[in-house]
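Dissemination and training. As part of the outreach component of the grant, students in the summer workshop were shown how a complex can be specified as a set of sequence lines and then modelled as a single object. The example used during the hands-on session is reproduced here so that future cohorts can follow it. Participants entered these lines:
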Amino acid sequence: MYLLVILIPLLSAVGSGLGGRYLGRKGAGLLSSVWVLVSSLLSFVLCYEILINGSTVYIELGRWIESYLLITSFGLQFDMVTAVMLIVVTTISGLVHVYSTSYMREDPHLPRFMSYLSLFTFFMLILITSNNYVQLFIGWEGVGLCSYLLINFWFTRIQANKAAIKAMLINRIGDIGLMLAIILIWKEFGAVDYCSLFPALSPSSACTWICILLTIGAVGKSAQLGLHTWLPDAMEGPTPVSALIHAATMVTAGVFLIIRSAPLFDYSPTATIIVGLVGSLTAFFAATVGLVQSDIKKVIAYSTCSQLGYMVMACGTYSCLSSLYHLLTHAFFKALLFLGAGSIIHALLDEQDLRKMGGIIRGLPLTYVLMLIGSLSLAGFPYLSGFYSKDLILELTYNNYCIISIYWLASITAFLTAFYSFRLIYLSFVSKPNLTRISAQHLQEADWNLLGPLLVLAIGSILVGYIAQNMVFAPGERPLPLVPTIVSLAPVIMSVTGILLVFILRPYIIYYTTHPSIYGFLFYAWEFNQIANYYIGSTVWKFGHIVSYRIIDRGILEILGPTGIAQFMVNRTKELSSLQSGLVFNYALMILVGTAIALKYLVVN
Amino acid sequence: MNYLVLSIIILLIGILGIILNRSNLIIMLMCVELVLLASTILLLFESRVLYTLFGQIFAIVILTVAAAESAIGLAIMVNYYRLRGTIAVRALNLLRG
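and obtained this result:
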């Protein structure tokens, strides 16, 4: 059963990928949905065994790398962290599979799409269940690959191509960090599997470096500040992809890496503080950018970026489990928001611009309710699932980092989160209609294949926070931050204020009160793309063209290498062959001189 | 001793004649003859000094060879003159490298 959970998505991927032409669109959709849902059910059973009955399982599948110093095996480790991630990955994935059968119904390449989704699920499961860093790296690269394939699903669109390449390349920077970290771990501790590594740790400066490199890996994959630019661009992919990969699962791989490496981070306070700072800055940055975006999917993408910042920040408070807890609840409400946005986009005939929506509450009441539940949960409204995890993180940061700005950034972010998520609700559902006539006429709810997953996710967004809090934290391990009452009330006050502000002052307040330059600065996401393109990209490009291509490759190396040597040899041989002048007396002279020299050396000696 | 000096001087004259001569192929042939004669004189001198007959035998062989060589050489020259209409040495450089 433990193996089946992993193998079923693989079989589904192979089945609908290679057999798609025989199964047809409906068949592929049905097959992969059912199979991944089965995998999801199995993972609930596993979760019961692992989380509630507390039985950690290790499975050894076979030897992989055997050398004198390093022995690595293919192995699976089902512990608590894995169990929670299993729930996240298989549940969200199963629901997204079902959703896609409706959302992508008209697409001729549905079997391929389903195959990629299942393949992604498989690699994600490899990532979370591996018992060593090297096998984790397989999954890590696999989900990157699937991300590329899925962003680029509509491969005829140039924007999708560019976004996919960007996602791949920026992830690659993080991957280099992770790879260096693995090499350093191997060099320092001689083992890459968790069971041998974590008991063998000792405080050393290498720990700091390993942790910083792991953080770089997480920054790349989880779209933290600096390497986040691929996440908004990845919205070029279909909406189910955004929901599955760029909201719930793949981007959480970076956070999972940090959670998995928690024992390493415990030995390195420096790296822990860096993680906290990076996370809080990302949360704040993405929240400010989310305030002014006009594309509905980009708002949610920046919100994801912001929530990932929260998770990473939570890892910086020495309480990785609270990060895992937020990961779990976030997966539910963010998938709900994305799929809800997909429902809106679907109903409005592929219109993504918030400015061209409004008033669709009459046409899409169910979607409205579901989006509202998702947004309230995201804003941390009391008793919904976001509330439990987010409050905990904020209090933990107050406990640990009240003095340095992390807590304040996180609190402001909580306020901004409430504001932009309700700005989205307001602009799309409540404000006065701005639709085209055609989309207003066609406005209606989608079928139950599309709404069913949303309902399940909505129930998840309401309940998971409460149900899971005693499952994620082992008994007695739940951190209990000691904070003043005002601090524990603050997040709720913040989010309620944010929600009310939207409805009292209208979201346009941002537009009217901010200076155009600041608005533009926020709209273009703090100009990160600009900076990357102009200061890094074009500099590197120029260096590459002028120095390494024109001067070194075509210049020095050509002259010292093929062209130069060939030219030199040709010239010398020409000179040498002109010795043969054809004039007999010259030959005679040469014979004479040659004989004289030969005599000198042969005879005289 | 005088014979030795004489023969070496003749040898040098012959060689210099070959090297410095730029115009006439016949002069070159004559200089080759000169070289051969110088060597013959040297051999005879050596035969006289060392009291052996080998030098004289070789001298006779060389005379034969020289006669044959000049015959062949002249034949080549005549053929060459037929083809080119000249036997100037500096016109002989058609086979440059």
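DSSP finds 26 helices and two strands in chain A. Students were then asked to discuss how this feature might be tested experimentally.
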